[in-house]
Amino acid sequence: xxxxxxxxxxxxxxxxxxxxxxxxxxxxxxxxxxxxxxxxxxxxxxxxxxxxxxxxxxxxxxxxxxxxxxxxxxxxxxxxxxxxxxxxxxxxxxxxxxxxxxxxxxxxxxxxxxxxxxxxxxxxxxxxxxxxxxxxxxxxxxxxxxxxxxxxxxxxxxxxxxxxxxxxxxxxxxxxxxxxxxxxxxxxxxxxxxxxxxxxxxxxxxxxxxxx
Length: 212
Known about the structure:
Elements: E1 7-12, H1 18-28, E2 32-34, E3 38-39, E4 54-55, H2 58-66, E5 70-76, E6 79-84, H3 85-93, E7 97-101, H4 104-113, E8 118-123, H5 127-137, H6 142-156, E9 164-167, H7 171-185, H8 193-211
Parallel strand pairs: 1-7, 1-8, 2-7, 3-4, 8-9
Antiparallel strand pairs: 3-6, 5-6
């Protein structure tokens, strides 16, 4: 029997290494599918449309909202970000574990719509390391980095809403930890409702026999 996949929501501070972490997870394990988000922000150097993001105009994004084509969406640093619905549902039904890499506002909206989703928050071991990683990217000004660090403080207020905190210190260890958490989540009762119903019905027949 093919089981439905686990919907995994991954959030974290900008600079926590989420992108690298997810890329490595896909390389090591073959049952994950990374949902590509839609955004109105401009592509960074090397980012391809349909791979890193589906890049769109504000008008296109708002039309998709009106057509109920997104699982969730939010505005972050002046740009829209959202999760296209059709691809996610298709992959889950095929048994794939679908990873949504989205920020806190969107993650909480997903949890409301899909209570069985697994929420993971990725963080570096400390704030100084977060600053070092942001500077090391070399893609943003000091002013933007300062804004991202201020935003990280605000986001830290929502960390308690997640199922697990994942510290991204050593990449390979972090990848293995995420996989273990997903495998454990697969066995949670909320994700095995069909199995519970099936075995309950089977046991009911035994119960009837005992009463006769």
